[in-house]
Amino acid sequence: MAGDLLDRIVGEIRARKRAARAAYDESRQLERALAALDAKAGSAQPARAATTRRRRRSPVTSTTTRARRGANRGTILAAVQERPGSTTRELADATGIARTTVASTVTRLAAAGVLERSELPGGGVGFRAADPAVD
């Protein structure tokens, strides 16, 4: 009796695992197709062929696709224009970009003179667009 129950449970687990694997494979194919279509629609350059080689990923890696080069910078600059004086956390919340990415990007932009750092009343640091007239 217990052996039959155990065999049935193991069989159900294996069947669910096969079904989940098929859904995962289909999801990866759809992600590659969307990335190729986005790349083709976003630029006149031909999209790179998707690699068939599997990469080993850390368990922490997100399943979202990577932003195009310069996309985060543009999104952050637009958010700063809309919300001058915002902190990195506020910019991350507004843009949906990881806080560490926002922090490193605004630091580089401030060093390049594109953004200005401003001390906030609560002791934090906010960012705003640099005044182009002051050079």
CATH class placement of the largest domain? Mainly Alpha
Total number of beta strands:
2
The share of residues in extended strands comes to 5-15%
Strand order, main sheet: write it out. 1-2
Structure description:
The model has no long low-confidence stretch (mean pLDDT about 80). By secondary structure, the chain is mainly alpha-helical. A hairpin with a 5-residue loop joins strand 1 and strand 2. The protein is built from 4 helices and 2 strands, in the order ααααββ. The protein has 2 domains: about 45 residues; about 60 residues, Orthogonal Bundle (Arc Repressor Mutant, subunit A), CATH 1.10.10.10. The radius of gyration is 23 Å and the shape is elongated. Helix 2 packs across helix 3 and helix 3 crosses helix 4.
Give the secondary structure arrangement, pairings included.
Elements: H1 2-42, H2 71-82, H3 88-95, H4 99-111, E1 115-119, E2 125-129
Antiparallel strand pairs: 1-2
Short description:
The protein is mainly α and 135 residues long. The protein has four helices and two strands; from the N terminus they run ααααββ. α2 packs across α3 and α3 packs across α4.
Output the keywords.
135 residues; mainly alpha; Arc Repressor Mutant, subunit A; 2 strands
